[in-house]
Design brief:
The protein is an all-alpha fold. The chain is built from 15 helices and no strands. It is 82% helix and 0% strand.
Length: 413
């Protein structure tokens, strides 16, 4: 089957299109968690305290936040497939730069920013690739599959980097991770046809004119809730491997690879995200989001303080935390897509990503500062306060969501 025939076959079958886009997303994310997985090695090698390690984690999202307003919004005007190809190339370049040129905080910093810009070009534009090519009736579950596969990519990245570290060293692990985005580029070129975005005929403003989105309270409620969600999620993912290593060294008796456990925690989040999307369809998005965000905060108050308990208990609590954090992920993104003003879906996804990932820019550093400042209180107490600070980020998002939902309901009445 030629490339054109393969692309036509994918375009004709909705389930196959979802599969191709989701698998490509996971491939393009093989470097996403690599730094976090390698952090127990890189932090002492580069003489970084927790705050600096957190900054180097968060600056990745700085690159994302700078690039995503344009890269996501422009998909209302040109084929999102082109933006994804650009993003995957940037993701690969960031990983190659880290592998070949980084030897400390400052030399790694620009490559983390480039890699973050790569995610900006692949994640939300990839969702636009999918929704532009699907009939509207299939979009809610397609969004759930796609956002759930974000956790698949994150899990794959943890284990690829962690396993490669033993055989290839950290530079070799980064080089291996760079192969994923390149494979994703190949899949997009061979299996996806070009597609011009539809236009409803209304006059267009500047590509970076987001005022229609800011004037939509329902959409902004989901956006701000997503900001709290991502801050909490990526703070947890930034520090989960060091936390598991700490727990193994204090209360754990099992000699397990913390990166493999981090992968398992990310994979559990896949089931949680998709399950949450299904529950949202049955019981309502607002009810699901409210329950998930409050539950996540409650569990965050327990996770860090469990560090000295038997390691199986620690892992179980971490798994529960992953489930509660991720339960509302697909529902939040699907809600923003559904509430987008007509003709501004790409712009809505741009705002969704920009504000959403702005929290992730600072969250890992905030947790690092908490760990440094609370260190005199003892490791378990410091980790307990660190995880509680993560939960507080999500709780702030919930308060914004509840306030805007109430305001939107009042406007309709």
């Amino acid at each position: 089957m030629s490339g054109n025939q393969a692309a036509r076959a994918v375009a004709a079958r909705g389930w196959l299109l979802i599969l191709v886009v989701c698998v490509s997303e996971a491939l393009m994310m093989t470097g996403f968690s690599a730094y976090w997985s390698l952090l127990p090695v890189l932090q002492p090698a580069w003489s970084m305290n927790n705050a600096l390690a957190g900054w180097l984690s968060g600056v990745f999202f700085g690159g994302y936040v700078v690039a995503v307003p344009f890269l996501a919004a422009i998909t209302d005007r040109i084929d999102a497939r082109l933006i994804v190809l650009l993003g995957a190339a940037l993701a690969a370049a960031g990983l190659l730069g880290m592998a070949l040129l980084a030897d400390g905080f400052w030399t790694a910093l620009p490559w983390r920013i480039v890699a973050g810009a790569g995610l900006a070009g692949t994640y939300m534009p990839g969702l636009k690739v999918l929704t532009d090519r699907l009939r509207s009736g299939n979009q809610a579950r397609a969004v759930a599959f796609y956002t759930s596969c974000f956790s698949v990519g994150s899990a794959l990245s943890y284990v690829v980097a962690g396993m490669a570290l033993e055989w290839l060293g950290w530079r070799g692990a980064m080089l291996l991770a760079a192969a994923g985005p390149l494979l994703g580029i190949l899949a997009y070129l061979v299996l996806l046809e070009p597609h011009r975005p539809q236009h409803d005929g209304t006059p267009r403003g500047h590509v970076l004119d987001f005022r229609p989105v800011f004037r939509a309270p329902e959409a902004m409620g989901y956006v701000l809730a997503y900001a709290g969600h991502t801050a909490e999620l990526f703070a947890m993912r930034s520090w989960i491997v060091p936390f598991l290593v700490f727990s193994l060294g204090t209360g754990g008796a099992l000699d397990l690879d913390a990166t493999v456990l981090a992968m398992a925690i990310s994979l559990v989040a896949v089931v949680s995200s998709f399950g949450g999307a299904e529950l949202a369809l049955r019981f309502g998005r607002r009810r699901l989001v409210t329950s998930a965000m409050l539950s996540s905060f409650a569990v965050s108050a327990v996770v860090g303080f469990s560090a000295a308990l038997p390691f199986t208990v620690v892992v179980a609590v971490c798994l529960i935390y992953a489930v509660t954090i991720q339960a509302d992920s697909a529902a939040l993104t699907a809600g923003a897509v559904a509430a987008a003003p007509p003709g501004h879906r790409g712009a809505t996804l741009a705002v969704h990503s920009t504000l959403g990932f702005s929290g992730a820019l600072f969250a890992p550093m905030v947790v690092g500062v908490v760990l440094d400042e609370a260190a005199p209180l003892g490791g378990t107490t410091a980790w307990g306060l660190a995880f509680l600070s993560m939960g507080a980020m999500g709780l702030l998002g919930f308060f914004c969501f509840a306030a805007l939902a109430r305001y939107h309901a009042g406007r309709r009445d």
